[in-house]
Amino acid sequence: MTKRKRSVALLMSFILVATSFGGFLGASGAGAQDRETLVFGINAADIGNLDPHYASATQDRAIVDMVFNGLVRFVPGTVSELEPDIAAEMPTATENEDGTQTWTVALRDDVMCQPSSETEAYQLTSADVVFSLQKAASDDTSNYASAYAGWTVEAVDDQTIEITVETPVSDALFLPTIANYSGGFIICQQPFEALGADGFITNPVGTGPFMFQEYTPQNSVVLAANDDYFRGAPALSGVEVRFIADGTTRELALQSGELHVAAGLPEAQWADRVSEQEGVVVDVFGVGEVLFLNINTTIEPFDDPLVREAIMLAISREGHIALSGAPVGEAVYSPVPAQLMEGGLTEEEATEADVNYEQDTARAMELLAEAGYEDGFEIDLVTSEMDSYRLNYEVLADELRQIGVTVNLEVVQHAAMHELIRQDENALTFYVAYRPNADVYLSQFFTEEGGVTNFSKYDVSDLVEEARATTDSAEQAELWKQANINLQQDFAGYGILLVNQVYARQDTVDYGHELNAVINLYPGIDETTSISGD
Amino acid sequence: MAQASIAGAGSAGQNGAPNISLVSQRTRAWRTFRRNKSALFGLGMIVLVIAIAVLAPLLAPYDPIVQDTVNRLERPSSEHWLGLDHFGRDVLSRIIYGTQVALIIGIASVALGGVLGTAMGIVAGYFGGRISSLIMRVVDILLSFPDLITGLLVVAVLGTGMTKLIIAIGLTIAPRFARIAYGPTLSVKEKEFVEAARALGQRTRIILSRHILPNVAGELLVLASLWTAQAIRLEASLSFVGLGVQPPTPTWGQMIRDGTVYLTNFPLLAIAPGVALLFTVFAFNLVGDGLRDVLDPKSK
Amino acid sequence: MLRHIFKRLLLAIPTMFVVVTIIFLLVRVIPGDPARAALGDYASEEAIQSLREDLGLADPLWQQYITYLGNLIQADLGTSMVTRDSTWDQIQFVLPHTLELTIAAVLLALAFGIPIGVIAAVRQNSAADYVGRVVSLLGLSIPAFFLGLLLIYFFSAQMGIFPAIGAGNFSDPVDNVYHLVLPAVSLGLIEMAYVSRMTRSVMINVLSDDYVRTARAKGLLERVVLMKHAFRAGLVPIISLIGIFVVGLIGSSVLTEEVFARPGLGKLMIGAIKQRDYTLLQAIMVIYAFFIVVINIIVDIIYTVADPRVRYE
To answer: Is residue A279 in a domain?
Structure first.
């Protein structure tokens, strides 16, 4: 017995020594360098795809944003304003005689492609930009090809390209497609060809402030400072993105100082509680991802407008928002969020157009009875295991239970849900998404052009096309609003809420910009981001 | 239910002839079991758990699935002894109703796996031959994999939900029963009374059920009790990794999974269902252990 | 002896073949499309279809099976469907973490489990034995993830002594051990319960054997009897049981890795299931099967060596 006690004591003391020693090592290591590596705990188990033209998961978007640039970029910390990035100045358009439109983009002459395991660093030229945009436009090499349909991209000289589009579009629709987002990220041709498309998935090479150094599956992606970055050498020596899918673990690691920045839980309660910790700051910012409901208007019994109206009346926005709580969760009154972009409905506009449905269980049951379902009915729904879906489906199931509709909810893996809903498995489909403008939201989800993602089988393409052809932005916004009104009036779709981003950081971390909204769903880490010495 | 199965344990007896006085053998086994205080205690715990499951509608203060998201994560109070979860559902009521799910899955999957596996083992043992040894070879391979890994694969194939989970867990544990039933069947079939029965021209089905089954029943019963514990644990583990029963059905594993998110500030959400889970699994293990002592006094 | 080992190795080949076939079939019937999982929510239907063809998912099953077996014979585990990386590279990275965790847990379990079991057997039915039995039964009953959670709550969240996060780097041994303590203790405690129970029941059997009684009757010192005769006799069955523990441990480590967000084979497996990464899942299962077969062979060999009474035809 005493022997056991002794060995336990021995173990404990060893551990104590080990811990203090470890702390000492860590401290001396940090002192030896001027710049620090920022350790960023992100909410994911692993990367999905680091080719920027495929990146769609939050962790992928964050990483590619640090590695790549666009021709133009959203002013850091905002989504409302654009400024030149690789482009020397903001591109301008000229209308051609054949009805097409040409955008001329002059490039900066100091942009360097990062070195990779296969290639040296070299100056980016128009050839790279043309290659990148053509790659983004091809269905075989990009997820975002549809945004570039009808484009012709040509190099005029080493420093200039021309983009010709078949139908003229406004600045508001064109510029975001060449910004630092999705297909707009510019990749370097030589390393892409040297590494191959498959290699690029785990080894991205661009022009940004940080360059890819190492990927360890399910653990981390390490980025090193790109000292040849055209805006100057980064203040950080690098960024280590660690994949920690568990919120509690991230919170504890932030508390112990193992992380500088950690993705939070999308809950106001969490934000309040964690910001009370000493030395920790919590930022709540955009862009919010919108949760909206799609009702399949062709599936029985939802082909009956009375039933669809009953569903709308069963839903309580407050109930869904309470899952996040203000200011993390905010109400939206149409699938297109009015607070983020033109074309969405505000509360007043929705109420005025009679498409702001307040929860009214009694009326909903009357409507069901009128439709011949006085005893309610049963439906099967699938949900992703991801909280942003699962929790809202569970709340929906409870809301529908109250009007006599039984929901059998099956939880499936995220990818499986996406597959099933595209086969019309769900008569009621929640979708959580951010899209850069109303045109993308509406055409992807509420026109025939959207194909399998038109979950409601409802079509507002007339209005969307009319808006697309309009260069007057006020008129354009009115048309989009009308589309939002129509689809809610006919109970095909319904905007419920948007959920903002929640990230916690040590107060020594300075992102280098105000945090209003970031399109790539993380706080935005660039050459200006720094950690002050303590 | 538990009483009945304990009495059943007696009928198993030792590997002796089955047709001597069953009653006295049963009484003797019960007496041995009764002297085993911890097993008796475990039996009491099982009875309590079953009572909670049966009386759940009376015991639970609230409906376990009704939400109140506006008051979510409310801390324990006199109205809600264990507080409200992330949907604003009463945690205590969910734990109480969770007992039903745990028992249904635990017992049903063991029943399924037990019947399937035992039948396989007895048939393979009794008839012998090449096909039988091939079956047992596959059983051995399946057995060499940890249950959780087999369970994960089977659930990944079948999908989630109560019935599918029962089937998955049942299939996972069936080989255990096959293995246990196989050995004794091999040895019992050589015994005189079986050979005598065969010589008298009794039908195979009758020989299997009258003579072979009672002689392996004892071991199987121990296994059943221990595996009910394992099945409940397995269900919780699968729920914990997100491959469990459909929501909003209250299950302890899912409750623990959901509660981990709030571990630092509302640990009760994860720990309370965990304690309920531990209590139930422990009870079945205690009884299984006690039964083993009765059947194999040497290891006592 | 050598012939026996050789025979065991030869027998392992059909076993692996059966396992590989079962895994191949199981993995094919898992619902969900790996091509969609790989391309993400945005992908167009055409892109998914063309990736399916690239990945060979559009081929008939038998053709996929033959390709798979052919590659496997050349020790090619295939490339991941999601990251298009070699699956072996991914496994290679996590494997040391899983091995480290498993070995640490086994050592803990043996170092504490065997003495506890022996003491319990010697002092059968004493208070210490009784407490030990209840505690070990509790150890058998507690799910690995719940124990891990409790440890995180007390030692990380409340006391802040140990990190709750991932695994340490191998290049920094101190940091590595620091990260290993909680997961290894969590897994080790559960295995300790198994080991002490098995040791106890084996030792009780041995202690009641005739020659131990004779030795005692001859007036030999209790300690000598215990160490020289009883324990050595008990060693053989204990060794064979350790094989079973290690296999069980591999199962429990899945949950421990999940709870501690620690890179490892188990966490990789759950990730592969969730991402529908067929090839990765297959590769992991083959590695598991390989380890299980190897462990069984090793146990078998130790068994033969340790106990000359065991003879094989």
So the answer is: no
The continuous run of DSSP H or E covering A531 comes out as strand A530-531
Q: Are B261 and A265 in contact (CB < 8 Å)?
A: yes
| Domains of chain C as residue ranges with CATH | 96-275 (1.10.3720.10)
Name the 3-class secondary structure at C35: helix
Specify the pTM. Answer: 0.84
Taking CA atoms, C223 is separated from A207, A291, A450, C216, C220, in Å, by 74, 72, 81, 10, 8
Inside any domain, residue A460: yes
The answer to whether residues C144 and C190 touch, using CB atoms and an 8 Å cutoff, is yes
Q: Which of A221, A252, A432 to mutate to test the interface with C (most CBs of C within 10 A)?
A: A252
Residue A277's pLDDT band (boundaries 50, 70, 90)?
A: confident
CATH number, domain at A401?
Answer: 3.10.105.10
Q: Give the pLDDT of residue A5.
A: 43
Domain assignment of residue A54, given as a range: 8-245+508-531
Say whether both A125 and A164 belong to one domain. Answer: yes
Strands, E assignment, A129-209? 151-157, 160-165
Highest mean pLDDT of the ranges A328-332, B38-42, B183-187, C223-227: A328-332
Predicted confidence at residue C228, as pLDDT, reads: 66
Q: Do C83 and A244 touch (CB under 8 A)?
A: no
From the list A273, A395, A411, the residue facing B246 with the nearest CB is: A411
β-bridge partners, A84: A72
pLDDT digits (tens, 9 = 90+) for A469-516: 887 889 999 999 999 999 999 999 999 999 999 999 999 999 999 999
Tell me: do A52 and A200 sit in the same domain.
yes
Asked if the structure places residue A41 within a domain, the reply is: yes
pLDDT cut 90: percent of chain C above it: 7
**Same domain, yes or no, for A490 and A516?**
no
Q: What is the pLDDT of residue C242?
A: 76
Strands A406-412 and A378-384: parallel
Tens digits of residue pLDDT in B69-119: 889 999 999 999 999 999 999 999 999 999 999 999 999 999 999 999 998
d(CA B160, CA B173): 18
- Residue A276 covered by a domain: no
Give bridge partners of residue C66 from the DSSP assignment.
Answer: none
Contact criterion met (CB below 8 Å) for B246 and A411: yes
Say yes or no: A240 and A300 in one domain: no
For residue C244, give every residue at least 6 positions away whose Cβ sits within 8 Å of its Cβ, in sequence order, or none.
Answer: none
The verdict on A409 and A523 lying in the same domain is: no
Domains for chain B: give ranges and CATH numbers: 27-62+83-299 (1.10.3720.10)
CATH of residue A161's domain is: 3.40.190.10
- Grouping H, G, I as helix, E, B as strand and the rest as coil, residue A508 is coil
Q: What angle, rounded to 10 degrees, do the helices at C173-207 and C144-151 form?
A: 130
pLDDT band at residue A128 using 50, 70 and 90 as cut-offs: very high
Query: Which of A318, A323, A387, A407 to mutate: most B Cβ within 10 Å?
Result: A323
Distance in angstroms (rounded) separating the CA atoms of residues A226 and A228: 5
Contacts of A397 in chain B (CB under 8 A): 247-248
Considering the domain architecture, whether residues A25 and A63 belong to the same structural domain is answered as yes
Task: Please give the pLDDT value at position B127.
Answer: 83
Decide if pLDDT at A60 tops 50: yes
pLDDT digits (tens, 9 = 90+) for B233-261: 999 998 888 788 888 899 999 999 999 88
Residues A16 and A126 in one domain: yes
Q: How many domains does chain A have?
A: 2
pLDDT at position B294 over 80 = no
> C42 and A4: CB-CB below 8 Å?
no
Chain C residues 91-150 with CB within 8 Å of chain B:
130, 133-134, 137-138, 140-146, 149-150
Question: What is residue B3's predicted lDDT score, i.e. its pLDDT?
Answer: 31
Mutate to test the interface with B, among A248, A252, A387 (most CBs of B within 10 A): A248
Does B147 score more than 50 pLDDT? Answer: yes
Whether residue A78 sits in one domain with residue A36: yes
